[in-house]
From TrEMBL:
Residue span, CusB-like beta-barrel domain: 227-298
Transmembrane segments: none
Domain of life: Bacteria
Protein name as annotated: Efflux RND transporter periplasmic adaptor subunit
NCBIfam families for the chain: RND_mfp
Signal sequence bounds: 1-21
Keyword Signal: yes
InterPro entries reported for this sequence: Beta-barrel_RND_2 (IPR058792), MFP_Cation_Efflux (IPR051909), RND_pump_MFP (IPR006143)
Family in the record: Belongs to the membrane fusion protein (MFP) (TC 8.A.1) family.
Protein's organism: Pedobacter jamesrossensis
UniProt keyword terms in alphabetical order: Signal, Transport
The UniProt record lists the keyword Transport: yes
Length: 376
């Protein structure tokens, strides 16, 4: 009987110790719906890391789209001012041409007629000039009447005007009148490229007769190729000439092209969009007129309070941040986020988080733990 009393006392003390341990387990929990508690093992597995809110330069990014464009002065339509038959050409769309290069050969009997008329008038002009000078000398010595002298002068000036006009017409078909003689009259003429660039369109074939209004070829000079962007009206005040941007295509989004805004249109479309023209700092031959492009424009580059993107969690359409309130204890708080850039996001009204250890890794693990707690 004496041995049973100590055993009873031990059992009683053990039971009391178990009752005392239960409140310690409850103490690790909380009735606060925005606080989550992790034990040592959970904390280790979650990979929680904390840090401080930081101040850094962050810019708002405007994302727009548009297409590659070429200014009118860099697009050339080649036509034949006097018409004619296309005798030969080697041009194909995409082919490179150099300024002054012969790109086609034309022929027509009117070219012969014009050269003949020029040489004929030139010969008559030489005679008329000698007659004019002779009559001028005779008139000065009163050996010739004024009427005869005036007629000789009029004939000379008329022929000189006709010769000059024909010389200009010949220059339209690339014939140098000053080098024209009766021995080098030709029925063929060459068409030369006025720019260095590439062929955009070929609208004719060998043997076709073209009228003066017909466009034979279209050439593009890519040196001034630019990007034509469509920007919403609300974003226009944020842009300025000289502002930098980065452009990229849908096919190669990882390849960025540096551009600079050179012109902002003052007209709006029916969709309240304005054209913003930007120039490529380095031309790439892969950029073709008409190609669809995307662009990112950084605006309002100000110093802001930021946290890493991983620190923000989305829950029921709102954004939250966790911060440590003790060993293994974290509190979730609602925040208002702003601009994002390079993996960081601006936090508006950051004074409530100043100096607090913010969870910068493992925030979503804490959110899942908090949601599971709410479901229990």
């Amino acid at each position: 009987m004496k041995n049973l009393i100590p055993i009873f006392v031990i059992l009683l003390l053990t039971a009391c110790g178990q009752k005392d341990a239960a409140p310690e387990k409850v103490a690790n929990n909380t009735d606060q719906p925005d606080v989550v508690i992790l034990n040592t093992a959970q904390l280790k597995n979650a990979g929680i890391q904390t840090g401080q809110i930081e101040n850094q330069n962050i810019a708002e990014v405007i994302r727009v789209n548009g297409s590659i464009d070429v200014p009118p002065q860099n697009m050339v339509s080649i036509s034949m001012p006097l018409g004619g038959y296309l005798r030969s050409t080697k041009l194909l769309p995409g082919m490179h041409v150099s300024k002054g290069e012969a790109i086609a050969e034309m022929e027509d009997q009117q070219y012969i007629q014009m050269q003949q008329d020029y040489l004929t008038i030139k010969a008559k002009l030489e005679f008329a000039q000698r007659e004019y000078l002779r009559q001028k000398e005779l008139n000065q010595s009163q050996a010739s009447s004024n009427k005869v002298f005036q007629q000789a002068e009029a004939d000379y000036k008329t022929l000189r005007i006709s010769l000059g006009a024909l010389a200009e017409k010949l220059s339209l078909i690339n014939i140098n009148a000053s080098r024209l003689t009766e021995r080098n009259i030709s029925r063929k003429i060459n068409i030369y490229s006025p720019i260095t660039g590439f062929v955009s369109k070929v609208n004719v074939n060998i043997g076709k007769y073209v009228n003066p209004s017909d466009v034979l070829f279209e050439l593009v000079n890519p040196t001034d190729i630019h990007l034509n962007l469509k920007v919403f009206e609300k974003d226009l005040p944020k842009l300025a000439i000289g502002q930098k941007l980065k452009a990229y295509s849908n096919n190669f989004p990882e390849k960025k092209y540096d551009c600079e805004i050179i012109l902002i249109s003052k007209d709006l479309s029916t969709d309240h969009l304005a054209e913003v023209h930007s120039h490529f700092e380095n031309y790439d031959q892969a950029l073709i007129p008409g190609m669809y492009m995307n662009a990112e424009i950084q605006v309002n580059n100000n110093r802001s309070s930021t946290v890493p993107d991983e620190a923000l969690v989305d829950f029921e359409g709102k954004q939250y941040i966790f911060f440590s309130i003790g060993p293994g204890r974290f509190k979730m708080t609602l925040v208002e986020s702003g601009k994002s850039e390079s993996g960081s996001t601006e936090i508006k009204h950051p004074e409530t988080l100043s100096g607090k250890p913010i969870v910068i890794k493992g925030a979503y693990t804490l959110l899942m733990k908090l949601k599971n707690k709410a479901d229990e």
